[in-house]
Amino acid sequence: FLYWLFQLWRGRGKKKNGDGEIKFDKQRKYGLSLVVPVYRGDRHIDGNIERLIGKLEEWGRKFEVIVVVDGIVDRSYEILRELQKKSRKLKVFGYARNRGKGYAVRYGLGLAKYEYVGYLDSGEDIDYASLEYLLKRVDAYPRKDAFFADKHHVLSWIDNVSLVRLTGSKLFHWFSSVFLRTEFYDTQVGLKLFRRGVWNEICERLVVGIEGFAFDVEIAKELLDGEYKLIKCPVVIRGEGRRTTVTLLRALEMFRDVLILGRHYLYRDLIRAREELVIRVRRGLEPGWLSAFYGE
Hints:
The chain is α/β, with parallel strands linked by helices. The chain is built from 10 helices and 9 strands.
């Protein structure tokens, strides 16, 4: 109840429709480039992309859907190329070898042309109502830098997701927070939007450039360290009793990548601390023995 009162107070003066929901602001002339990475998705990808394009057309803005086939190992690329002939909003790219989700997302967003960019997992778990909510947040808070779907949000709805998957997600969240010394948002929900300029800045600042699933952690780390303005948004996840597509090997690779990130960020922070200390020594703000230690 208190959270509802806070949301009501925060939304004072905003344009609403008869149902109390924030309307899309048709006056702002920005568009959206949405990347969908695909790997072994030939059984469901055509229907998913058609429904996604239909949902974005309801938004009433300029948009493009950039599908990146992360390894041409099945009929996904062929199916999507046929679907591309039916819609000018769809762009399809692919390459022969599987490189990982992080590589596919950066590849696709490097081709984006609109003011807002983002990515969405190609599976059927994330209900498209979640995308609609993020788009409304973009309209309501245009000065924010990034919008993250977060299954830990008080308004999120998780339905029929296995205990193993939920436990693994909690464990990975804790592990990332400890080893990177940052209290993260939920990094592993595959739905995020950014202002295009912010995304370009983040890509230039990446320390490692993780190509696998853990690249979400590196992106979130840079956003939080850079003090960008983020908004957490609720998400609807319908597992439908399916098991996660992340294999044990991929899970171990995610934990390994977090350890690699932790080592690089620790080294970077030590270098920055030393540089700041040298500057303070030169200005006479630190004791003389430090000056002698650094040869000043």
